[in-house]
Design goal:
Radius of gyration: 20 Å
Number of strands: 0
Distance between the termini: 65 Å
Number of helices: 5
Structural class: mainly alpha
Shape: flat
Order of helices and strands: HHHHH
Strand content: under 5%
Length: 160
């Protein structure tokens, strides 16, 4: 029995593989410009090369799964556009976090990051329980990083 979702899953596997392939190749090209070092004494290029190699491996697996699912078909523009909106929402929320972290403090910035990123999900609804969870997570992690680990950022930056 063939479901409508079969084509979407096949296309999304190939599309995800192409995204992994692009990011992995870009990261590998950048990482190769730095000294690799060794496992015992890692150089600045070690982590980008290892992560990029893993991305390339996942790309191969994902593309293979998509092609093995049936006739080869590149992802449609509509499918890529539909998948780009949540990714861009998360990217914009991370950039916003970086821009306002020193101005607002770590706790409000983290809370903003969590709530903005959550809007990428179609199931997101601004209700008391998710807000309480976001406040607890942001407060806990901010406290750990600022108070316990000594991150040189204000917990909450009061205006004035």
């Amino acid at each position: 029995m063939k479901f409508w979702g079969d084509d979407v899953l096949k296309q999304s596997a190939i599309g995800l593989g192409l995204i992994y392939l692009t990011l992995g190749a870009l990261g590998l090209a950048i990482g190769l410009g730095y000294p690799m070092g060794s496992v015992a004494r890692m150089g600045p290029g070690f982590l980008p090369i290892v992560v990029s190699s893993l991305l390339l491996a996942f790309a191969a697996i994902s593309i293979f799964k998509g092609l093995a699912a049936g006739r080869p078909q590149l992802p449609s523009v509509q499918l890529l556009a539909k998948g780009a909106a949540p990714v861009m929402t998360v990217v914009i929320s991370v950039v916003t976090f970086a821009a306002v972290c020193r101005v607002l403090g770590l706790f409000p910035s983290t809370l903003l990051l969590i709530l903005m990123s959550a809007t990428a999900s179609p199931e997101f609804a601004l209700k008391p329980k998710p807000i309480a969870g976001a406040v607890i997570v942001a407060g806990t992690f901010s406290y750990i990083f600022v108070k316990l680990l000594g991150l040189p950022l204000p917990y909450i930056n009061m205006p004035g």
